[in-house]
Amino acid sequence: MAFSAVIRRASAAAAVKAYAGFCRRSRRSHHFAALQPFLPGTMLSRGERNRVPSSISPLARFFSSLSKKQDAELLQIIESEIQCAKEDIREVEEVSKEFPFEIQDDEGANIVILRREYFGENIEVVVSMPNIDVDPDHNEGEDDQGSRGDEKANQPTIPLTVNISKGKGVNLEFCCTAYADELVVDSLSLHKTEESEDRLLAYEGPDFDDLDENLRKAFQKYLEMRAISPSTTSYLYEYMVNKEDREYLRWMQTVRQFIEK
User: Fold this and answer.
1) Residues 183-193: pLDDT tens digits?
2) What is the per-residue pLDDT across 172-226, written as a single tens digit (0 to 9) for each?
3) Which residue stretches belong to region Disordered (predicted)?
């Protein structure tokens, strides 16, 4: 009796254990089947991967197509602008051998530097890109004299900074504005030649317009003797207007290359 009871209990325990194992395997299989669509592709068979839904791909393809279309439209506009920029570029006369300055014109720079020596003086002129200030209050009904004044006010101007040094000590610096046929001195200042954080002298001097008229004319003559004259600035005027057109064309071509990548 006792032995039979032991056999029955052992058989019952084995049956329960086998059933529990079966249930665990069934649950794992069920859970794995439910998770298969969300598992990485490396854990799925080729057929199962083909059946995995992709809800993001259509949206990604839509935005990719839209982006390419917009880029193509932008490139068309850029190409049109490049063609217009090419038409705006004019030929500038070659620098005459009699031109008194050495010209440093680096591609991509927004300035041109002129250098020369004049009886022991070192002269450096920094020529900036043209400024265009259009007067919004211009009236077409004004007389000829007023129209000529407005025409000059609306034409591009070239900022110049003229630095004249004589070795150690101080430098004389003129800030000027060049028109097509005129040079106007805006300011005059002295700077220390020694390298320091504050090269400007404590007393900056009066405004140039506040100087006596004869003194202003004398300074104009001083610059003309050093070839800072209307004949020089007239050439620089055309040169810088052309340089701005060339740099704009180069800039647009670089933008196009970036968009096309």
Assistant:
1) 999 999 988 87
2) 999 999 988 889 999 999 888 765 555 556 677 889 999 999 999 999 999 999 9
3) 130-157
More confident residue, 64 or 34: 64
Q: What type of residue sits at position 154?
A: N
Q: How many CB atoms lie within 10 A of CB 206?
A: 10
Which CATH number covers residue 202?
3.10.280.10
3-class state of residue 176 by DSSP: strand
Which H or E run includes 161? strand 158-165
90 within some domain: no
Dihedrals phi, psi of 44, to nearest 5 degrees: -115, 155
pLDDT at position 63 over 80 = no
Environment class of 134 (CB within 10 Å of its CB; exposed 0-12, middle 13-18, buried 19+): exposed
Do 107 and 14 belong to one domain?
A: no
**DSSP assigned state of 168:** S
Which residue segment(s) compose the domain that 27 sits in?
Answer: 2-53
Number of domains in the chain: 2
Q: What is the Cα–Cα distance from 161 to 60, expressed in whole angstroms?
A: 55
Residue with tokens 């610096």: 173
Confidence of residue 142 (pLDDT cuts 50, 70, 90): low
pTM: 0.65
Angle formed by the axes of helices 57-88 and 230-260, nearest 10°: 160
Residues contacting residue 211 through CB under 8 Å, at least 6 positions apart? 219
Confirm whether 70 is domain-assigned. Answer: no
Q: Are 157 and 174 in contact (CB under 8 A)?
A: no
